[in-house]
Amino acid sequence: MNPKKASDIFSAIVPAPFGAMGIRVGEGLLRELVYLPPEFDEKAPADAVSEQAASQIARYLDEPDFRFSLPLSPAGTDFQRRVWSAISAIPRGEVLTYGQVAKLIRSAPRAVGQACGANWFPLVIPCHRVTASGGLGGFSNHDDASGFHLGVKRWLLAHEGVPGYR
């Protein structure tokens, strides 16, 4: 992916310790947040919602206890929204396994993992707080242990003070 051309799809790009966050906005609502590698340059917010999202992401990156309050576009299936609701209830500094979340919503761990990977609003819906029973698990539909996305997940868990990731 060419970072210069790809950045055109974002309303803003916010620098982050792990790279950057791409912000997509439409019709006055946040449509998507995307983890981006470091080669993406910062992009000033194009509108009020992307400015609000950029500001709140920066606050979270400084203060892991910060709580997001953004106008989210409706997304996902009923099942995905149930998973995302359960994930949103996980407190900062804690994790649940895919199996634990599945038990809470009466589902299967693999289905929970797929819903995590389909999350349109990472950070706002903290899917990084869901791990495998035997370790880190995947992240954003990636499972390469030394890859960018799992590096982001490790950084986020350390940032939030999760034991074993500090």
TrEMBL record:
Pfam families in UniProt: DNA_binding_1 (PF01035)
Domain Methylated-DNA-[protein]-cysteine S-methyltransferase DNA binding: 78-162
GO molecular function annotations of the record: methylated-DNA-[protein]-cysteine S-methyltransferase activity
Keyword Chaperone appears in the UniProt entry: no
Keywords of the record: DNA damage, Methyltransferase, Transferase
GO biological process terms, semicolon-separated: DNA repair; methylation
UniProt xrefs under NCBIfam families: ogt
Descriptive protein name: Methylated-DNA--[protein]-cysteine S-methyltransferase
Record organism: Noviherbaspirillum galbum
